[in-house]
Write a structure and sequence with these properties.
mainly alpha; Arc Repressor Mutant, subunit A; 2 domains; disordered C terminus
């Protein structure tokens, strides 16, 4: 793991914030994260030492992580993709309107950058939360 991060995460950071790096940092990170080159291979291509590539990538990753901690562009995108996958499952299952309302609330919270807890995490048992999520709560006759 170059720069102390997973290569996929490094590539996502580079994609989101790459223009904020120096040209040399971008080049080194692109080779390491996007092309999956070793530090030695990148060093040879860039005409510098392996240690220099390590320093370029390490400095870049530290900068990109600091920026991500403030802006959350990459984490929000990951949350959006995860929620979209869940939406596909909801379409396939013919989910009731209550579940779609919850889906839209969670989408809005991602866009606003506010945390969201699913109803089954807020209170009550997991079964009660799942019933709320699927719209299969008991009727008045069950009470």
């Amino acid at each position: 793991m170059a720069g102390g991060v997973d290569p996929i995460y490094g590539a996502a950071l580079l994609d989101a914030y790459g223009p904020l790096l120096t040209e040399r940092q971008r080049e080194a990170c692109a080779l390491v994260f996007e092309e999956d080159w070793s530090l030695s291979e990148a060093a040879h291509a860039l005409g510098v030492s392996r240690a220099r590539v390590g320093a370029l990538v390490g400095d870049a990753v530290r900068r990109l992580v600091r920026i991500e901690e403030r802006l959350h562009v990459v984490s929000r995108q990951a949350a959006r993709l995860s929620l979209l996958q869940e939406g596909g499952t909801l379409v396939d299952s013919g989910a009731p309107p209550e579940v779609w309302r919850d889906f839209l609330v969670r989408w809005r919270r991602i866009e606003e950058g506010t945390p969201y807890e699913r109803p089954d995490r807020i209170g009550g048992s997991t079964a009660e939360g799942e019933a709320r999520m699927t719209g299969s709560e008991g009727t008045d006759a069950d009470v």
